[in-house]
Each structure stands twice: as C-alpha cells, then as structure tokens.
Amino acid sequence: MKVLVTGAGGMLGTDLCADLQARGHEVVATDTREGFVPLDVTDKRAAFAAVHEARPDAIIHCAAWTDVDGAERNPDGAYRVNALGSWHMAAAAAETDALLLYVSTDFVFDGRKGAPYTEFDSVNPLGHYGASKEAGERLVRQTLPGRHIIARTAWLYGVHGKNFPYAILNLAKKLPEVPVVADQVGCPTHTRDLSRKLIDLIEDPLPGTYHVAGAGHCSWFDFARAIVAAAGLATPVVPITAREYAERFNSPTERPAYSPMRRLALEMRGMDDMPPWQESMAEFLALVPK
Ligand SMILES: NC(=O)c1ccc[n+]([C@@H]2O[C@H](COP(=O)([O-])OP(=O)(O)OC[C@H]3O[C@@H](n4cnc5c(N)ncnc54)[C@H](OP(=O)(O)O)[C@@H]3O)[C@@H](O)[C@H]2O)c1
Fold it and tell me: What EC identifiers does the entry list (predicted)?
C-alpha cells in the first residue's frame, strides 16, 4: 500500500514510518519538521495538495498538538491542529477515496467510570487537549463515514521522543529521590507495539473506533518504579498525589484519574495481542542508547 503519514517526525511517526517500510509499504513521510515532505495540516490548501499529489491508499494521521498543559493555556492553538487539521485530512481523504487512520487518546474520557473503558463508553474530556482530540474524532467520523479508523492510545513512549521513561531515567540519575503521581492509573504503551497494530488495522480494515494500548494498567508511580528497577538504579521513587504534582510543577490540566482502556474491538476481531506493559517497557529499555 501507499501510506501518507502526518507528523512523521514525531515519537510515533518515526517508528511507524520505519515499520511501514519494513512491511513493504511505500511511505510518504510528512511533517512541519525539517527533513520531511512539508505539510502543515492546519493549512487546507497544503493538506489537499499533499493528498492529491501522493494519492495514498491510506493516511495515518499522527500530527497533533500533544502539549497537554499548553492546550490549557492556548486552547485555540490545540483545536486548530487537533480538530481543524484532522478535518482537513479527513476531507482530503474523502476526495481521493483514501482510508484515514486518526490516532486519538484516553484523554477523551473523564476517568470516573471506575473500570477500564471500552470503545462503547461515552466520552467526556476534562481538558482542552482531550476535548480538541475528541473534536478531531467527531470531525473524522462525520467527514469520512465508512473510510476511517480511530485508534485511541495512552501513555505513549518510544525511543524517538520526549516521554515519561526518559524523564524518570534522567531524574533518577540526578535527584536523591523521584516524586511521582500515584493516584492516576492508565495503560503505558510502547510506540513499537502501537505502530505494529495500526499497520495491522490498515492492512485488514474494518472502519470504526479501536482502543490500542499496552495490556494491563498501573499508576505513574508503579510505572516509574518498574523503570528505575529495570534500569538497575537504586534511587527511591516516592508517591505524590496529582494535586501535589499540579502545584509543584504549575500544571493547569485536570487529567483522568483512572483511564485504563479495554481493547474490546480488537478482542472481538481476534486481533488483540498487545503485550503486557512490563514486557514492552523491558523491550524499550533494551533499545535505549546507553
Ligand atoms: N504522547 C502520548 O502520550 C499520547 C497519548 C495518547 C495519544 N497520543 C496521540 O498519538 C499521536 C502521536 O503522538 P506523539 O507523542 O508521537 O506526538 P509528537 O511526538 O508530538 O509528534 C507529533 C508530530 O506532529 C507534528 N506537528 C505538530 N503540529 C503539526 C501541524 N500543524 N502539521 C503537521 N505536523 C504537525 C509535530 O511537530 P513539532 O513537534 O515540531 O510541532 C511532531 O512531529 C498524536 O495524535 C497524539 O495525540 C499521544
């Protein structure tokens, strides 16, 4: 297949492009970053021109405003990229009959269900990042009925990006102890596992909404402790609350307290082989340059 990737220079996009190529697909790697086919998804004309020129069979739309606190400070900026940009990509896909896969987030949920979320649960984002991504979901569904896949993921980390495991490893080397939030629970997801599953989904598409996250769930505190231990460091990890974190680090964002995701659509299709988060984290640490 010919696949156009947006946000190809980002954490997920980098692994995804490599994995697509390894599986024999032709890739058009676009981004606003240097070194890629230039494409700013907020520019309608550019979005349509890129898709008309490439004529891809599928678009994997990874480009996003991913700065969660920044979205609280500048909601319009977040909506411009996550809602308008996704609308453009879906409309361009509609014109060229391409399949569009939109990567979304567990932040579309409020975290108050008390059990893992399925694809059939109602959304209720708490902040502007989640709301702008949810607006993107709706625009994709409306603009491209029958030709879209929405893949919600969570707590993403990969070799090619700024992420939680890197931050914890750095802090554990610098500080006498590392304070980490213990009252937020979710599904850590390695970009390599996500990327493999996104490609499975475009190769055998059944349009609709999917949860694609690492198996099992934990708190940020559990995740940090596991990272520090697996890296052979002795630095203590100490639990703090989300409220303490917000005060200490001046974070304006209310995050879902409990957003594990059940991969019910993948389960029903017999496609759920996402590895447990502990296994994926060990694989990630083995890939991190020493
Ligand atoms: N990271 C997570 O924990 C997480 C969790 C759930 C879902 N997701 C979703 O997963 C997807 C990939 O996330 P990621 O962590 O790989 O993100 P990322 O590393 O921030 O990559 C996003 C890429 O999109 C680019 N971009 C930003 N604005 C753009 C625009 N207007 N036009 C074109 N490209 C633009 C970014 O460039 P610059 O960086 O130079 O702006 C970057 O290269 C996103 O849809 C995100 O919402 C992420």
Answer: 1.1.1.133
State yes or no: pLDDT of 289 exceeds 90: no
Which positions ≥6 away from 139 have C-beta within 8 Å?
A: 83, 86, 87, 90
Residue 229 falls inside a structural domain = no
Return the best residue to mutate from 12, 14, 61, 209 for the ligand 1 pocket (most ligand atoms within 8 A of CB): 12
Q: Rounded to two decimals, what is the model's pTM?
A: 0.97
Q: Is 280 part of any domain?
A: no
Each residue of 32-63: pLDDT tens digit? Answer: 999 999 999 999 999 999 999 999 999 999 99
Tell whether 222 is covered by a domain: no
DSSP sequence for 115-148: S-B-TTSPP--SSHHHHHHHHHHHHHHHHSTTSE
CATH number of the domain residue 207 falls in = 3.40.50.720
Residue with tokens 């640490």: 285
Domain limits at 154?
A: 2-162+189-216+259-275
> Does 47 reside within a domain?
yes
Catalytic site residue from 79, 117, 129, 157: 129
Is ligand 1 within 6 A of the CB of residue 58? no
